[in-house]
Amino acid sequence: MNSLADPTHERTTRPHWLVAGNWVLTALILVSSAAVARPLAAGAAIASAHPFATQAGVQILSQGGNAFDAAVAVAATLAVVEPSGSGLGGGGFWMLHRARDGREVMVDGRERAPLAAHADFFLDGAGRPLPGASIDGPLAAGIPGLPATLAHVAERYGALPLSTTLQPAIAIARNGFAVGEAYCRAAARREKALRQSPAAARIFLDHGRPPRPGFRLVQTELAHTLEALAEDGADGFYRGAVGADLVKGVRAAGGRWATEDLAAYRVIEREPLRGEYRGVRIVTAAPPGGGVVLLETLNILAEHELNRYPPPIATHVTIEAMRRAYRDRDRYLGDPDFIRIPLTRLLSRDYAAGLNAALRTDRALPSAYLPDAAAPEGDGANTTHLSIVDREGNAVAATLSINYGFGSGFVAPGTGVLLNDEMDDFATLPGVPNVYGLVGGEANRVAPGKRMLSSMTPTFLDDRGRFAVLGTPGGSRIISMVLLATLDFADGRGPHWIASRPRFHHQYLPDQVELEPDALPAGDRTQLTALGHRLQPLERPYGNLQIVVRERDGRLSAASDPRGEGLSIVIP
Hints:
The protein is an alpha+beta fold. 32% of the residues lie in helices and 17% in strands. It has 19 helices and 23 strands. It has a nine-stranded antiparallel sheet, with helices on one face. The protein has a seven-stranded antiparallel sheet with strand order 5-22-21-17-16-13-12. A three-stranded mixed sheet has the order 18-19-20, with helices on one face. A hairpin with a 5-residue loop joins strand 14 (384-389) and strand 15. The longest helix is centred in the middle third of the chain and has 22 residues, at 311-332. The protein is globular. The chain starts with 13 loop residues before the first strand and ends with a strand.
């Protein structure tokens, strides 16, 4: 995609002895904060959305852990230091690659609807959506999956016990840390929801107000919950005192959880989706994740030689492919354990050729001309991601979320656990948008025990020489960001370019092209408008992509998105 400005500016990297909390990492490492770590000899690499989380992963690797152990430590630490994006009260998808036998698996730790949920869960007596009911407060919370996933990955794939891998997160939760600007901005945006929960306000606000940078966030109750998880595994969260406090707190505040909901939660191992684009092998998230849309878009684009087009035409064709694939997301996708998804058709090259038949290089096709069009509104970008490769070649790409910033804003008293608002990812009514502007149909309606559809798309890319582990937060824009990263990887781009590149997005509805500031040259914007696209420039950049790449000669490089506060580390 040669239409984009070259974002190859780069921060200076230098060796550091890292100190985090009460531990010291006694290995010389190359650190790059929100920038690329230059390739070194084959070793291990971690990129995550927060420096403390990345450092926690390095600590676990130094103690003999593998990539799976490090991922547990990183994910648990992100739950402590980045509460606006993920947490024990949320869930996510993990892509695992085990080097010794080549096993690739998707670990589905997505939240489930409580057993009391039903299709009209968020509708009033007249069948209209209840404002805010699926976003704020405990009614919006699905049954969390992250604690079970941490235990599952540790027990089945790790080399170290949870009592070791959760120690960095426990230490930071107990001792506290100074928050930065990103935390303060997120808390200010969700101040109202946090203030509605006394337990949340006490922990995450400063005397009832959004804190300023430097505020020390101490989460003693969360440390106790993590200790229970470390000692008793998943039962330490879903059963016993923690589970009882969660159910009691949720029900007292108007939620519908029951003890049976927690006891019934199970992680599911799913076969990943696989595809190929111009020699790049893609392994990505199966439903209810975002991989279908990613592969369908790439199948459409495979009908075109993008690099032969003038830059604005290449961008136009990519937008048109996004439009068609996102439309199928809204129409067909949901929890595969509850609905029949026509995967074979959606992922076939013949189907892509049919969608491509009406794709014109000289004109945009309005979304209203496609079936099932509605007119949503909405915005948002939260969640988090980690990417890891270890010395043996094991790899993890994990995208984690509690959905909107600070999730539901509700903390069950005595647990320190901030609950998600993933119930908003269901289709409250067919054609009615969620907080990210995504519409959905019957395939993604609320049902008891059902997993909600997600855009999270942790992905592996392999061109039979280079291997990439990547993913990003960003709400409905996650899939389009991973798409652009895949196109860049296929063009031979390195991790710094991929993490830094300007972005654009189209999701079928609303019928507009969202552009990061300065994403496209003025001439390209003019030509796209002439082709019939409605451009929507955004005030702020979006996304927080984390990527590790193993080069053909075995060297590792890594990058954390410069839009965030993440840290990428390569250990020689």
